[in-house]
Amino acid sequence: MMHKALRFPGRQRRAFSAVVDTLKHKIQGLAEKKAPQLTALRKEHGGKVLGETTVGQCIGGMRGITCMISETSLLDPMEGIRYRGRTLQDCMDQLPKAPGSKIGLPEASFWLLLTDEIPSDAEVKALNEELHKRSALPESVVKTIDSLPKDTHPMTQLSIGLLALQPTSEFGKAYRSGTLKKNEYWVYTLEDALSLVAKVPILAARIFRNVFMEGKHIPSDPSMDWAGNYAQMLGVSDDALFKDVTRMYLMLHADHEAGNVSAHTTHLVGSALSDPYYSYAAGVCGLAGPLHGLANQECLRWLKNTRQELGGKEPTVEVLTQFAKDTLASGKVIPGFGHGVLRNTDPRYVIQRQFAQDNFPNDPLVKLAEVCFQAIPPVLEATGKVKNPWPNVDALSGTCMQYFGLDQEDYYTVIFAVSRALGCTSNLVWSRMMGLPIERPKSVTLDWLSTKAAE
Ligand SMILES: CC(C)(COP(=O)(O)OP(=O)(O)OC[C@H]1O[C@@H](n2cnc3c(N)ncnc32)[C@H](O)[C@@H]1OP(=O)(O)O)[C@@H](O)C(=O)NCCC(=O)NCCS
């Protein structure tokens, strides 16, 4: 049941600000429009077959089994992701921007994912003010993060930081109070989503400065937009374009429907009514895998190693073809290429490539990445097994960041995680709004499969 007729509960500890009220009314209004659709699907079409599950899919990571709902975005194998029906280029064009910038603001995409509406400039400004109000880290969290060994991977630090924030969960507190009603879950989930999104750049910047900048921190600037402020707290470049590249990174990585590892993990853990801090910390652990988010770190490392081995020689398609073959022969994947669902060049790559070509086409790694774009797909195609030989989002994101001096590749997946918080938490809000149940797919043994296969 889609939860309707919600009256914002009177017992809440603090009054909502006007912008949070606006968000809640917009989300609720959208949910009321969608409620009949969900009810009809459940009641009238619950038995409709969406497709069959094969033995191959059961063994093969559940590829192509349609079995989850994500209201926030939909991925088309050829065209790429759409946020609430809008392509990423639409988002770049239509979302409000920071003064003098051409990049659609990522926090505006958060609004879009939550409400299905492009926010006005005033709404994004108010949202930013609200996020700033919620952004301070509790002292206990600061102490936890500051006490971690500096050689702890930044992604480990981020997931520890998110878990350290968990005691602040409004959902957790309200649930423990024993009086929380099911149709109020989404309201408290939204509360946590907003606070988590507000705090995650502060936490992420603290980790960066602790690990790579001798613990010298740059204060948050409450006059700035969410992503621009994150860029200034990282403090690697005063170039206004560094803020833009950060905004672009955070807008492009925000959501990729719900079946990918980080989104699915967040959704799965959230389905047990674990609060958004627990859920997203789990998602971040999934993002830390090299086949998923960590690929951007691996990709830059691969490009840097390749450049070093070139020893100053111009990269050519012939040389890069050989490098790619050597990587495959050593049993490794070529990071930044391939995808579980996409069957075309990732539009996130296309937008970053355009940005790099417009702003720093002569950067040596950008030039190298261009040659990779020509050399690697044919090598992958020639294996006969790679379903998508084209570049994905990770093939250029690190290259764009290193141009501005952010070349600590171990940190790259943290930036991805700051962005993905937008999509994963919006999805949690909608899962609670739709009253989706705890997830529990059926698993079977090999013997069971063999018996079934023989029937
Ligand atoms: C993303 C990825 C994990 C998708 O995996 P997938 O859905 O299993 O992809 P495919 O169905 O095309 O894989 C078929 C085979 O091709 C291989 N393959 C796919 N992409 C490859 C790549 N970039 N380099 C080398 N081999 C690759 C797979 O490892 C698999 O080999 P196997 O049958 O020996 O196990 C995979 O393309 C990959 O490892 N890419 C590199 C890492 C990366 O960039 N990840 C970020 C994704 S946004």
TrEMBL record:
Record's keyword annotation contains Cell membrane: no
Keyword Magnesium: no
InterPro entries: Citrate_synth-like_lrg_a-sub, Citrate_synth-like_sm_a-sub, Citrate_synthase, Citrate_synthase_AS, Citrate_synthase_sf
UniProt cross-references to Pfam families, sorted A to Z: Citrate_synt
Annotated keywords: Transferase
Family designation: Belongs to the citrate synthase family.
PANTHER family: CITRATE SYNTHASE (PTHR11739), CITRATE SYNTHASE, MITOCHONDRIAL (PTHR11739:SF8)
Protein name: Citrate synthase
